[in-house]
Amino acid sequence: MFRALYPWQVVGGAVPGMGAEGPAAMTASGFGAGSGAGAVPPEPFFPPPVFSPRPAPIPAQFAKELTADPLTWFNSERLNLLAAVDLACAAGQFGLARELADAQCAYQHRQDRHDDAERSWTSRTG
Question: What is the pTM of this model?
Answer without folding.
Answer: 0.47
